Amino acid sequence: MGASVDSMKPLTAAKKLGIFLPATPEEFRNGEISHAQFNELQSNPPEWLTKLRRNGPHPRPEVARKLGITITALKKNDMDKPLTTEDIKNLLEQMPEWLAAARESLAQQRTEAAEAEAKKDEGPGKAAADAAKAAQEPVQEP
User: Fold this and answer.
1) φ, ψ for residue 31 (rounded to 5)?
2) What distances in angstroms separate CA 126 from CA 90, 117, 135, one per listed residue?
């Protein structure tokens, strides 16, 4: 029938741990992980998990995060594969043109999103909301 409420599939656990499932030990890949086991992995990671997190290979989301780009940028540039920490370090040192452009693009997107959020918080809608809120508050007499 599938995973019980008290356990998760190895793929789910690997995603939550930020690790590449095929690089995990066989006993991790072939069984379900209870929430207690998962919590233990997070709070007291075994040596294999510590090494995997440090050295890789890393899954796409982790590779993208470490490179400072999107998963889409990885795919567009045929880098849609697990990379080791060493591979990532080399890419950052070499900084190919596509990587520099993807990093700049993501930085720009984040800046624009932050500016849009700030405008939303400061725009005319906020002034109207503040005025309406002030009108509802009881007046304090001196």
Assistant:
1) -135, 170
2) 47, 12, 14
Distance CA 74, CA 81 (A): 8
Please tell me the pTM assigned to this model.
0.70
Q: Tokens for 9?
A: 């599939």
pLDDT digits (tens, 9 = 90+) for 70-81: 999 999 999 988
139: DSSP letter: P
The answer on pLDDT for 4 being more than 80 is no
Share of residues in the chain with pLDDT > 70 (%): 81
Classified as helix, coil or strand, 7 is strand
Report the percentage of the chain scoring pLDDT > 90: 63
Residue 29's alpha-carbon distances to 37, 39, 113, in angstroms, are 14, 17, 39
**How many other CB atoms sit within 10 Å of the CB of residue 62?**
19
Domain boundaries, the chain: 1-48, 56-111
Helix axes 60-67, 97-122, angle to 10 degrees: 80
Q: Could you tell me the two tokens for 5?
A: 């409420």
Q: Euclidean distance between the first and final Cα of the chain, in Å?
A: 70
Q: H or E element: which one contains 123? A: none
